[in-house]
Amino acid sequence: MVVKPNIVRTERALRSKVSSWRDAGESVALVPTMGALHEGHLHLIDLASKKADRTIVSVFVNPGQFAPKEDFSKYPRDEKSDMAKLANYDVDLVFAPSVEMIYPHDFATKVILLGPASADLEDQFRPHFFDGVATVVAKLLILCQPHMAIFGEKDYQQFLVIRQMARDLNIPVKIISGSTIREPDGLALSSRNAYLSPDERLIAPMLHAILKDVAHKVARGGEVNRVLGTAKTKLGRSGFRLDYLEARDRKTLQPLARGFTGNARLLAAAWLGKTRLIDNIALKI
């Protein structure tokens, strides 16, 4: 039987419901989203429902993480479609606040970050992004009072930033990662994939294919910088405008020390036409 999820939009209604669950000894998981739900989100929601007694999905397009020239006004919003998708999953509550509820007119506080947020990756190209993300996620964790929160590994730097933020601010929530979900051709699922033209959609999976090729060559003994240089050339010839392609420490995102061996992370961001794609995979050196 398909049951529409219960939607709340106010702090009072949210806290009342969550308090009743916690008073009953039930565990609560939160999956923060900006809507435009796809299979990647639904995978995280399924993971949350398996790990906790109760699952909350937040749907909020956060203006705080968009730069003035970015696509906040154009970001896809379709609450009816999102609710229809969630009806097929074990979701106990949807928290869908207004911008005014999250950021009242006299709002004057922001989370400022260092650590993984200052790794010269996403932060180099979107300098205000992680402060905006961390601020809204901190609010959501405090409002929803979950025992755990689930974030996708596709946004790997974001996952590390949020985990560090929760630890540093002593927010008693376990931050859990969910694996990246991909199309059959390897393209990481993202709401922004809808911006790709048909021709660009055919090219887009090459980003992941080249990442895999780098990981394969490095694992077989290829020198990291040389392999990365070749990969950057391939991406450029394929039509991508590269922001970065880097091998980094998987825990700190700092550049690899000379002679590094072990588990690292390969991270990339590149433009294809007007669409910016990001991806990452594990790297064994």
Descriptive notes:
The protein is of the alpha/beta class. The protein folds into 2 domains: 7-178, HUPs (Rossmann fold, 3-Layer(aba) Sandwich), CATH 3.40.50; 191-284, Pantoate--beta-alanine Ligase, Chain: A,domain 2 (2-Layer Sandwich), CATH 3.30.1300.10. The chain is built from 10 helices and 9 strands. The protein has a 6-stranded parallel β-sheet, with helices on both faces. Helix 6 (129-144) crosses helix 7 (156-168) and helix 9 packs antiparallel against helix 10. It is globular and about 55 Å long. The termini are far apart.
Q: What topology does this entry show?
A:
Elements: E1 7-8, H1 11-23, E2 28-33, H2 39-51, E3 54-59, H3 79-86, E4 93-95, H4 99-102, H5 122-125, H6 129-144, E5 148-152, H7 156-168, E6 174-178, H8 198-203, H9 206-219, H10 224-237, E7 241-249, E8 263-272, E9 275-284
Parallel strand pairs: 1-4, 2-3, 2-5, 3-4, 5-6
Antiparallel strand pairs: 7-8, 8-9
Helix pairs in contact: 6-7, 9-10
Task: Please tally the helical runs, counting DSSP H or I stretches of 4 or more residues.
Answer: 10
CATH topology of the largest domain: Rossmann fold
Strand order of the largest sheet: 1-4-3-2-5-6
What is the helix content?
A: 25-40%
Class inferred from helices and paired strands: alpha/beta
Largest sheet: 6 strands, parallel
CATH architecture designation of the largest domain: 3-Layer(aba) Sandwich
Give the low-confidence spans. none
Q: What is the CATH class of the largest domain?
A: Alpha Beta
